[in-house]
Amino acid sequence: MPILSDSRATWVVRTQLTSRPRIDRVVEEAVAAGLNALIVQVRGRGDAYFQGGLEPPPPSLAETTFDPLAHLIAEAHGRGIAVHAWVNANLVWNPARPNNDPRHLVNRHPEWLMAPESLAGDLLALPPSHPDFKRRLLAYVVANPGSVEGLYSDPANEDYRKHLAAVCGDIAARYDVDGVHLDYIRYPNQAWGYSRGALDRFRVEVDRELSAEDRRDMSERLARHPLVYTRRYPVRWGNFRRRAVSRMVEQVSGAVRRARPGITVSAAVFPDISIARDDKLQEWPEWMTRGWLDVACPMNYATAEQRELFDRRTHAGVGARGPGRVWMGIGAWRLPVAETVARVRAARAAGANGVVLFSHGGLQGQRGAFTTLRREVFGPPTRVSQE
After folding, report:
1. pLDDT tens-digit profile of 228-262?
2. CATH code, 315
3. Domain limits at 275?
């Protein structure tokens, strides 16, 4: 399937995939809006909104044989609409709605979890299998909802990267998806990534370039201060974590392209390139340059009063796409329909290769939104050849 040269898509959140009627409604609304693609969330929190995957289903699908992804693909493809499997990469657990299936990675592999700097010293004293390890992490997340959305797996953990690549490759191999779309392919912020595995790997990397005397000195300091390497080499520590995320993108991209040659690999990314790189450790323009990513979808969710900010981010994102493409993300849930229409036009005028609206469910709550989009900017849902 060629990459859409004029994407007209919505992000479809997983809660809309739990029954045939909900899925059928989404497809009918996509037709009404003139969409040519749906980006559907099939891995929300380390779970599977499809059958026979490498991870357990969410509680809402635990007792059913219904396959949401298979049904949606059949319905959407039958109406000429592409389907991209949306995978939340590193965000794997919602404390408010836990998945207690013993097969869930948080229950099976707590050593894969990311740790915050302020908690790292305490967690390093505990084996990951100890009940207090997960309890302490969860308590921190619950107490800090403004800075972290839930438990994250650590992209610096090679075993987890392989697991995620296998999950995505499995989807691409078994389902006729047109693309795999990565979200939360980042750190929550600079204060995260202090797991035992990451710290050990970083120490090994740094030690290779130290003299024997300096290694002995650092070893003595490490016994008293477990974060001494990250604090002495902060720039290198940031680069280490950026490379871990980039390596994750490379591995996932390779896995899905081997499973389904010609598939589109895309990612939801932070629209401010500096914040993406420096705070989220998400160096997405490099992913485009290296060809690991076909499409970047900047989450340009500026409010109705922030038109200038939207335009500035749009031009920056288009300018950073390199050999890839940009489908501009628009926060339609927080905008009047007329403003969403205006931003679709602005994104096109700036040279974006398409748009993705967040979210499909948000548009459902706005009377006449889908027919207005079709009439004003989208037209019929025809697939477009690659440029």
Report:
1. 999 999 999 999 999 999 999 999 999 999 999 99
2. 3.20.20.80
3. 7-378
